[in-house]
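Protein Entry — a single chain follows
Next Lines — sequence and tokenised fold
***
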Amino acid sequence: MTKRRLGASYHKLFISTVISNVGDGMSTIAYPWLASAITRNPILISLVVLVQRLPWLVFTLPAGVITDRVDRKRAMVIADFARFGLTLVVALAVLAKQSGLPGPNDLAGVHGTQTGLYIVLLCATLLLGTGEVLRDNCGQTFMPSIVDKDQLEVANGRMWSAEGIANTFVGPPLGSLLLLAAFALPFFVDAASFFAAAALVLSIPGSFRAERPEGHVQAPWRSELAEGFRWLWGNKLLRSMAIILGLMNLASTLSGSVLVLFSQEILNIGPLVFTVMGFGFAAGGALGANTAPWLAKRIGSGTCLALTLGSSALVSFVVGLTSVWPLVMVMFAIGATLGASWNVITVSLRQSIIPPHLLGRVNSVYRFFAWGMMPIGAAIGGVTVTVVSHLANRRIALRSAFFLDSAIYACLFIAGRRKLTTEKLEAARAMVPA
């Protein structure tokens, strides 16, 4: 039997995603290092992460209604062009203040806060996060329109793998090199990546509005949103999955919001070694994304999800204990391997079982629970480090965020093993008409 190709439209989306993720990979280095060059206050640094993720809490539900009402391709293009403009503004603001910033390897000398640049950073991350919500929601609902249902796991697996490689193997090293040359350079290149990604999606032929059942009359905005919420809440499996993922993301953002300070003060590393350490995420993500369909068939999709939860608890606990960056890199690789399989399995399941005309809205409600917890996690991370630093020393305070992260994942492992079984996932797929 001849293996079917995924098609030109998929490959344009694929290349667009890779280019965009190279830019995103650069920003994972540039934005935290910029924030830490402006201030050393853990609450102010975690506030940047909070603001970046806040749109997932406040804009996700409206984005779902928009996704089901407009041409999804056009919405993705507009979102990427908007992010191009916003990132260009950040680049110009950093360029204007560059002479007053310490070098990326000399952050110990940071005193006070450059208020103007910090405000630009906060406003830009808020708006960039808003664009990301709409773009990503459209992107996930776009996939079933250009790929056959039985190829979704393969298509998503390749996409997640490429995203991981671009985001952590290619983007961060490039971002580090540009950062060492000049603080503003990574932001200019990131802006260019958004422009290129938008142009590629624009070149995909066709219109991609949601197909609605015959005779369907468009309801008021709130009614359509409520319809998506009811569908998700009535599906016990996706409801449990969304809530568990929300608490997973809360835990990960809790520790991730202070990772740059942990790396600088506990691991004693600069941007280049921080990049090398991040290769653990890339290696694990690429491996997990490519092996997820095989692993799910071999041990069961529910077992894969349980392994993600259990391994994440172990990873965070070990990271919190160590002061050696190579061990952190290995732990990141282990966590990312199973984390990527979680994404491939759950995203493909949603794309398979949610009715096409509801996909945007149900996806947005799912992400409201799943991603909306991130700003809460970022706030908890900054407050945890601040409070513990008053009760103990700064080093213990930075480690405490990872221990709390680990405890949350351990509780989720117990709950998830019972609620997200292979039998329940397969039963959900079997109920979908062929």
In short: The chain has one domain: 8-205+223-430. The chain has a mean pLDDT of 84. The radius of gyration is 21 Å.
